[in-house]
Amino acid sequence: MRFPTIAIAILLLAAAPCAVGAQDSKADSARRDSMPKSPPGRGGLSTPNADPFPSTYRPFPSQPTVITNVTIFTAAGPRIVGGSVLMQDGKIAAVGAQVTAPADAVRIDGTGRFVTPGIIDTHSHLGVYPAPGVESLSDGNEATRPNTAYVWAEHSVWPQDPQFPRDLAGGVTTLQVLPGSANLFGGRSVTLKVVPSRSVQGMKFPGAKYGLKMACGENPKRVYGSRGGPQTRMGNVAGYRQAWIDAEAYRRSWDDYLANPGKGTPPKRDLGLETLAEVLRGNILVQNHCYRADEMLQMIDIAKEFGYSIRSFHHGVEAYKIADVLAAEGISASLWADWGGFKMESLDGIPANIALVDHAGARAITHSDDESFAQRLNQETAKALAAGRTIGLDISEDEAVKWMTINPAWALGLDDRIGSVEVGKDADLVLWSGNPFSVYTHADQVWVDGALLYDRSDPAEQWRTDFELGYVTRPGGAD
Amino acid sequence: MRASILVAGALALAASAPSARAQTIAITGGTIYPVSGPRIERGTVLIVDGRIAGVGSDVAIPPGAATVDATGKWVTPGLFNASTSLGLTEVGSGGNANETSADGHDEVAAAFQPWLAYNPQSVLIPSNRDYGVTTVAVWPAGNLVAGQGAVLDLGGGSLAAALVKPSAAMFGRLEGNRSAGVGARGELIGKLTELLDDTKAYMNNKAAYNAARMRPFAFRRVDLEAMIPVVTGRIPFVVAVDQAADILAALDLAKAHGLKLVLYSAAEGWMVAGQIAAARVPVMVGAMNNVPRSFTSLGSRQDNPALLRKAGVRVVLIGNAGGQEDLFNVRNIRYEAGNAVGYGMTWDDALVAVTLAPARVLGVADKVGALQVGLEGNVVVWSGDPFEFATRAEHVYVRGVEYTAPSRQDLLTERYKQLPPTYGAP
């Protein structure tokens, strides 16, 4: 389909309420009529919220399913003991002490077991750094220049990465795949449902906003120190600021052009500036790799200087030092439970980091950045919970569940759709063999949009990627 | 870390490590897991002059002993993490304190003794010890033969005091061609064979060698000298290897040369568990590895330790799935054990695998690894099951000394627990 002028106008109305659509004049229509009859293709225009690689994800077939007599960590309030949850048509249809299920619903006795929302990982490199970790598949860092805002992680995602089904078996149902941290601006992230697909488009979370990966500190200066810079942290900051100056000029030129369709020649598109401009318009969420407290505070000032928001600091081993600021600024922190010391900027890691950030009223998130610990975010959260309690913080398990569910959902801009067990939300659920904070507990079953996509007891319900066929012996049986 | 330290704040700071000289300590009333024997309900562990002097339900407590009431608690030997670089590395990258990798010569560094640079002042020692780890093995890294490993305890003081056993093992590889300085696995096996043969030739003809009456060797004299205990089977040769076929090659090499082989990593060990058991070769293996990271570890699976154990293999649990268990999180070895249990190992076997099994494999079971009279007083009192996240190490003794000074991580926590922070002492 061609992209007619009318569609551009509609898009403009939606994206820019104070634009000129309603003030159309006869002169404008006359000018439009005199325009060349072949308007630019869709790819010629830098329109807000453009979606050139649209999601083709469709929920897998499901049956109405009710889990009964189970402890439910809802992430939206206190746990429900001996409760039930009904999944129907891909959504959570009912949850409570008792629910009415249709006669044909699959019934699962949850006695002794626990339900949580599907786990959400804000920091994954699955698909872009797949297994096996060979050079031919290493597609996570476009480490060719310090600003590669123009790359999109989804174009590196290999849907046959055998790490995906392992994440799902660990209860992860949504993850954000980020470019690496070599660059000041690493490129766009993509949010995926953890489902089998022939394409990345088939995994893309419908309607999810893009993220922009930014990185502070040691990595950019290490990578570019001998390749033209930045060589220092002050070089890093100059790099961010100059890019935002350029992005603001780009945004203005395009918004001006789009506000007066057909007037003048469209500015030239620039993929990198387009991504940054979308951040300035609020359409892309900033996901900022940053370890040190002082650097995070500088990044907050840069965001204020140019009028954008930071949605989540990632790694933030010193987040606990500025937890009050994070709370006041409404910035979430995607953190490890207990990593640190592996480089200078991570020297001050402490096990109570997540708990202290939560305690200060900021959104704390257990993230992985690791293909092994991504499968055990419940265990990582359990460690963080224990560390908080050890220093005397009064934290409930109900609160800790939020660190791996509703808080990361917020960081991805999806907290109205996933992250809690509430009626109307996507039926992304995990049934655990016991309390998810025990080292001995496994995910027994995992549903995505109400479809059972993992069953620990049934090899037929365990997704195997193309790569694994013939190569990787199925756990628990010969192949 | 202990909550009381953070509450007590300044008081605790007055006590610098170690807080006390080894004294007579009676830990009473707890459930004791001696590892070398059956569980004891409501028992006593007695530590005198830094050594275990009594374990049982009927131990006489000498007058003047400091008594620790462990009623409702679990008492185990201190945990043993057999794969670390603690005290050798302070910061993994970007710092200037990393003493794990030798240059060597032609990718052989057998003479390398990394523990000579062991830093007992490392801030990572208290933060790992406080969580129940009392003993570590420190390994070299890199090369075809990386060098020698040592067993150390986390009792602080000097290297001499902490050293449980120097030259406890030699560390090499049967994978990673590039690190070994070869182009292919066959070449690697050939190079290793040449080293073993040359070592024997050197060992049997030292006089001729010193008189320069022998053919030249590709390897340095110091490395050949260091390899002698390996070819005579006096110390274990710990070989990093993952693929089932390479494991069988390692077993063949060990048999042909009379090596005391230990397999390290062994991702596909479960595929050849019967052969490993028959060769009586122990395995050092992680319990969280299920990612097919390379074409030599396509068979990675989490029940590998359980399947090896089931076949009768002596299993030492280590952390090699990431997660910094070799340094910052040496303390997390207990979660390897928990995960091993989650994937089919018995709880008792998992406890052995992080205490007595590494002690036996590295030849220090006469000193550490169990609660047994005569062994070092390395004891942990846990609030519950040591493999569970909610459980705390409430008391940790190394050679009978409990260390109570806050770790650097405790100090940071204390400073920033209330915001904004105050910058006075500590």
Describe the 3D structure.
The complex is a heterodimer of chains A (479) and B (426). Chain A has 12 helices and 17 strands. Chain A has helices at residues 5-15, 26-33, 163-169, 218-224, 233-259, 271-280, 293-306, 323-329, 353-359, 377-390, 397-402, 406-411, and strands spanning 65-72, 80-88, 91-96, 106-109, 114-117, 119-124, 172-177, 185-188, 190-193, 210-215, 284-290, 310-315, 332-335, 364-366, 429-432, 443-448, 451-455. In chain A, strands 1, 2, 3, 4, 5, 15, 16 and 17 form an 8-stranded mixed β-sheet that branches. A 6-stranded mixed β-sheet of chain A has the order 8-10-11-12-13-14. Chain B is built from 15 helices and 16 strands. Chain B has helices at 3-8, 10-14, 124-129, 159-162, 177-180, 185-204, 206-210, 221-231, 244-257, 273-278, 304-310, 333-342, 347-353, 356-361, 408-416, and strands at residues 25-32, 40-48, 51-56, 66-69, 74-77, 79-84, 133-138, 145-153, 163-173, 237-241, 261-265, 283-285, 315-317, 379-382, 393-398, 401-402. In chain B, strands 1, 2, 3, 4, 5, 14, 15 and 16 form an 8-stranded mixed β-sheet that branches. In chain B, strands 6-7-8-9-10-11-12-13 form an 8-stranded mixed β-sheet. In chain B, strand 11 (261-265), helix 10 and strand 12 form a beta-alpha-beta unit. The longest helix of chain B has 20 residues, at 185-204. The two termini of chain B are 16 Å apart. At the A-B interface, helix 10 of A face helix 1, helix 12 and helix 15 of B.
